[in-house]
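User: hey, got a sec? need Sodium/proline symporter folded
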Amino acid sequence: MQTPTIIALALYFALMLGIGLFAWKRSTADSEGYLLGGRNLPPAVAALSAGASDMSGWLLLGLPGALYLSGLVEAWIGVGLFAGAVANWYIVAPRLREQTVRYGNALTIPQFLANRFPDKATALRVVSAVIIVVFFAVYCAAGLVGGGLLFASSFFSGEILGMSPYMAGVLLTALVVLAYTTIGGFLAVSLTDFVQGLIMVTALVVMPLVVLFGDGTAESVGALRSVDPGFLSLSSDMGVIAFLSLIAWGLGYFGQPHIIVRFMAIREGGVRAARNIGLAWMLVALLGAVGVGLLGRAHVELNGLELENAETIFILLANTLFHPFVTGFLLAALLAAIMSTISSQLLVASSSLTEDFYRLFLKKDASEREAVTVGRISTALVAVAAIVIASDPESGVLALVANAWAGFGAAFGPLIILSLTWKRMTGAGAVAGLVTGAAVVLLFVLYSFPAGSAFANFIVETRGLDPVGVKDGVTLSALVYEIIPGFILSWLAIWSVSLATAGQATENN
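Assistant: Yep! Here you go:
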């Protein structure tokens, strides 16, 4: 790696740690400050924090990689996500900001649900906290995989202290994130997310424009059509199930704790401004990611380059097209995408361990200082679990994100929407929805039909899969994205159980 690149990255790391120290001085004296920044985030900070923590490394790795391999048809993921984000800002954000204050000044999503349905308070806090910790360990692992890929392909060429370049990258990414997250808490995470969001969107605007002006519009389009005549088609013989599986990513927004917790922390009266800023940022970022994937494929074809892993197209372009100092800035953008999400997820997971386990079962009268200390320890524990999951270099960023996104979307999505908008919902219905959504997603992801079995053959034929690629078995998620059945069945479970138990539970509406 060249010296200017190292300098640019060093400046980035120093900035992140500096923000962590600043936040440590401002907002870690009590739980509300450490976990929600005192509910006083400016709209711009809340908006970009929500966007940066949402998009993560998949925006610069997973999504461009999918477009690189399959063409414009994968852009439907972005369409679904944008539609889901719009609905989330309009339906969930204003109601969650107001109701989490009204119901006992809840600091976490499990705490809000417990206060909203006091007859099932313990069950809701425990079940939702378990789901948060489990799926966030997987989600954080996706970010660490991105960090490992980045360092292995750009920074390290040989073993570091007996570790592979990939594993060294995983550990270094985890350590930097842990440093500023444990020091500064939610304010540090939100402020670093704000800076990281600016870096990410700048990189996603600059890179595709440089590629396009360098290779030429006509040449790029011709190269993409030579790969496949349908490469630039939004349909490309796509079936209904495939279309729904892509667009259904938008359903996940309603149930992502690391995103909706930003709504709880926005300064009073700032939701509308934050919504406008956040959606504008997201639209530009998604268009940039689509451009990186498509124009990156054109650049590779036109210049006879080789790319072993499609998810590293952003890294390839950064290393080959720009001055080393600019390369450092672009790689910092990728690190920003990765770190912003990991830090947010670690903090939400640790808040659940602190508020919904430690203070609920182990020490109800824990002081504020003790709670903050436990939160920092919990952050480290979740990070260790994520490191273990990410230790497999064959892990795909998009695949891990897809599983965790579906788990949260199905378990919490219907629950959050209905708890904020439907007064007839009961605590029993809330528990039923949580369990049903999470169980369905886990079933679709983990249960595998043996290769050659009747149902496995049905999935292979329905989705047009390569039989050689499914020799180890076929999961139900290969048939349809698991968030669809999970979300629907969770909604039905809440609705049916709530109606069946109406009048039996203590109302808190």
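Quick note: The radius of gyration is 22 Å. Let me know if you need anything else on Sodium/proline symporter.
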